[in-house]
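User: Can you predict the 3D structure for this chain?
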Amino acid sequence: MKIKIRPRLNTGMVSEARRLGLDVSRIVDDALIQEVEAERRRRQADRGGDREDGDGTGSGTTAS
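Assistant: Here is the predicted structure, written as structure tokens:
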């Protein structure tokens, strides 16, 4: 499913993309997909790092 949005894009870049025959909607959609996937990976790595070896969990249990 697709929705219509009105992103604010650089006018010059949009004009150049159109002049070159590029599909701006597809490019924006692809970029959004890549950014969402990268953010999910980053957050997953952050959560995973918090659990490794009991560090960063705030559990108060540390090796002495």
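The mean pLDDT is 85. The longest helix spans residues 24-51.
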